[in-house]
Amino acid sequence: MCGIAGIFDVDLSTEELQAALTRMERSLVHRGPDEGAACVIAEMHGGLAVRRLSIVDLEHGSQPCSNEDSTVFALLNGEIYNHRALRERLTARGHRFRGESDTEVVAHLYEEYGDECLDRLRGMFALAVYDTRQRRLLLARDGPGMKPLYFAQARRGLLFASEAKALFASGLVRPEPNPAAIDTYLALGFVPAPLSAFRGLETLGAGQYLIADAAGTPRGAFWKYRSQPAQPGRSDEDYGAELDAVLGDAVRSHMAADVPVGAFLSGGWDSSLVAALAARCAGRELKTFSIIFPDDPTADEGRFSRCMAGHIGSDHHEIEFRSSLMPALIPKIARHMEEPCANVPAGVIYVLASLAGAHVKTVLSGEGADELFAGYKRFSENLPYVLRNFVPRSPARWAALHCPHFRLRRGLRFLGAQDGRTADAELARLFTPEDKRLLLDNWFQAEGPDLGPALIDADQLAACSDTLQRRLSFEFTGRLANAILLASDKMAMARSLEVRMPFLDRSVVEFALRLPSRLKVHSGRGKVILSGLAKRYLPPAIAARRKQGLAYPDGFWTRPPCDQYARELLLDGGKSPLDRGYVEKNLPRWLRARDAGQQIGRLVFLQSWWNEFFAASWP
In 372-507, which ranges are E strands? Predict the structure, then answer.
């Protein structure tokens, strides 16, 4: 796991390039405290920078890695789980390796197959390859989007990095707010790729690549989330046995490291299954980590995580999360997330990562199972979609424009949505375009794009054979890729911790894409196919549990100290993208509302992002 950065085809002297790359490298120390490098590659009119968290090939795994004649250089943030098998094939074809790292495999794989190398990689990654023979840069990001990658144009060239801060540290890019991205953020609670909250910066989409050479910067997708037809003649038992095999193999491959690997353990199905399978192949006592909520006993899963830890015999560690931590955490969240993100408990992840990072360098987690196998309760609730069959679209849209009630207005927009994929996004909406015109100060208003960047594309829509597949496609490519996985990466790497996600291994994802919907949701129950694994590997008390998602304590924005913190943050006298008069008028009502956390949280994380990056410099 690393932080990577680079400059390509930029008109600077060697000294200027070296200084810029060194600043970029130093800005990423938290992502890789073990070692760093910044080197100019004159043929590319640029260079590469990296910080390394040493997990694989501790002695010889330094980056950048090159091929034998140093004509191809590679940087890798993440892990390639099939790198040993790839190395064997490449060695048989005449390639010679200096070490055992997966990054070196990437360099040789590109030399052998060019851009087609991307389809052979199994792992989580953001990578860069410099081809000095063709003066060409290749950037790519894994299919689910577990590793982030930013890029920006500057002085006729291109800059890229794992984090926006590294681009700013170069001195070639200046942070400026992007009202269009904030428009979408207020609607959905996250900023979807390729948008960034910073004008002039873009994020490479999940499963996408970018090529920079003399012909320009073409982009494409080497992998896409696309539902597949179910295989005829297969029994439910066959599917269950296949999932058992592919998930077991995924966990086994994710345990490969030259340092101890731990596991997050909540006591729910997903993390418990991963931990149970990991404990079987750990070769040593598995360290597990969980978070408890003394302020909110109904959300506290401590008794279940302890039960599971006892069941697998792990060395278990716990840490408390209290609402009183949030005032100190929010500025840290804003600094490390870099994008405003409100519908993921980033503070909880940060605290949990601080515990795990004190013991291990890498952990397994259960992320992705809910999006692949329909674990969230909303996937089992079809009544809103049934109502759409009886409500005329145009009158519902008209009523939404004139309805003063916040939640009813959102419901009318959902009922009036012109098609199913738009309805999926409307169901996830918080603030409507009318709300945003009132919330934002005049100078920060944007004409859209509202929900547009998060909608699934026509190709993905055409592949969906039912409503559930379409909704899962929206969830996987939207909130999972752009909020959950972003928070997991940024919060964990802030504590120099790598998080590996076996459910998002390509073999598991592609299995889920061809799984019949009846094995995801049936009779109001989600994750049907996982119930068999739960009964096989988990204690009865955990196998019988219903889904309980990781979240902030219920209603914590409405009680001290968070309520007072929100008032002070949102109503202070500094510059703000928000219309403070409107916020001041409505804040007391939001603080009394049952779901106050949604409105207040979205505005708090927007304002804290603004304060972190612009309060001291914006006119």
Answer: 498-500
Cα distance between residue 178 and residue 191, in whole Å = 11
Range 286-313 average pLDDT: 93
CB atoms within 10 A of CB 314: 23
pLDDT score, position 206: 98
Of 192, 174, 191, 194, the residue nearest 614 (C-alpha) = 174
Q: Find where tokens 């003649």 sit.
A: 233
Q: How many other β-carbons are positioned within 10 Å of the β-carbon of residue 585?
A: 11
pLDDT digit string, tens, across residues 454-509: 999 999 999 999 999 999 999 999 999 999 999 999 999 999 999 999 999 999 99
d(CA 546, CA 435): 35
Please choose, from the candidates 242, 310, 239, 314, the residue with its C-alpha nearest in 3D space to the C-alpha of residue 278. 314
The span from the CA of 578 to the CA of 440, in Å, is: 4
Cα 204 to Cα 160, 163, 194, 219, 324: the distances in Å are: 10, 12, 6, 9, 36
User: Are 3 and 77 a contacting pair, CB within 8 Å?
Assistant: yes
Handedness of CA 592, 608, 580, 428 (dihedral sign): negative
* DSSP-assigned letter for residue 398: H
3-state percent helix, strand, coil for the chain, nearest multiple of 5 = 50, 15, 35
Give the count of beta carbons closer than 10 Å to the beta carbon of residue 80.
24
Topology adopted by domain 2-221: Glutamine Phosphoribosylpyrophosphate, subunit 1, domain 1 (3.60.20)
Q: What angle do CA 386, 391, 396 make, to 5 degrees?
A: 125
Over pLDDT 70: what percentage of the chain?
99
Element (H, E) at 434: helix 433-439
DSSP per-residue codes, 115-168: GGGGGG--EEEEEEEEETTTTEEEEEE-SS--S--EEEEETTEEEEESSHHHHH
Contact 83, 120 (CB under 8 A): no
d(CA 291, CA 304): 11
The tokens 């997708």 sit on which residue?
Answer: 221
How many Å is the maximal CA-CA distance in the chain? 71
Q: Which two tokens stand for residue 330?
A: 């929010």
Is residue 598 within 8 Å of 430, Cβ to Cβ? yes
pLDDT range class, residue 298, cuts 50, 70, 90: confident
- Residue written as token pair 């009523």: 399
Cis peptide before 297 (omega within 30 of 0): no
Closest CA to 187 of 371, 440, 386, 550: 440
CATH code of domain 224-547:
3.40.50.620
Query: What are the structural domain ranges in the chain?
Result: 2-221, 224-547, 555-619
Contact 314, 265 (CB under 8 A): yes
Pairing of strands 525-526, 521-522: antiparallel
